[in-house]
Amino acid sequence: MRPIHVVRLDKARPALILTRSSAIPYLTHVTVAPITSTIRGIVSEVPLSERNGLDHDSVASLDNVTTVPVSAIGRLIGFLEPEDEKTLTAVIERSFDLH
């Protein structure tokens, strides 16, 4: 399952870790999608909720994907559930016009 951690970005905020877990020990930076409670209902958002370890309904914003130092990754909050991986894949395809 893909982890959600607190990450130091502009401020400490939850983020979905997009880099595959097996690569992280060998990297100095990882790719993340910041999570926000501002839900705009656009194609680049992955819906998340309490079942993912968050306090309230939120979205991972694929319009704001960024890389951060591994040292910026804080505590584990939760996970993207296996059934949400298909949603993530579809949102990535739409966000980057890959279809």
UniProtKB/TrEMBL annotation:
InterPro entries: PemK-like (IPR003477), Plasmid_toxin/cell-grow_inhib (IPR011067). One of its GO terms (biological process) is mRNA catabolic process. Keywords: Toxin-antitoxin system. Pfam families: PemK_toxin. GO terms for molecular function: DNA binding; RNA endonuclease activity. It comes from the Bacteria. Belongs to the PemK/MazF family. This is Putative growth inhibitor PemK. It comes from Nostocoides jenkinsii Ben 74.
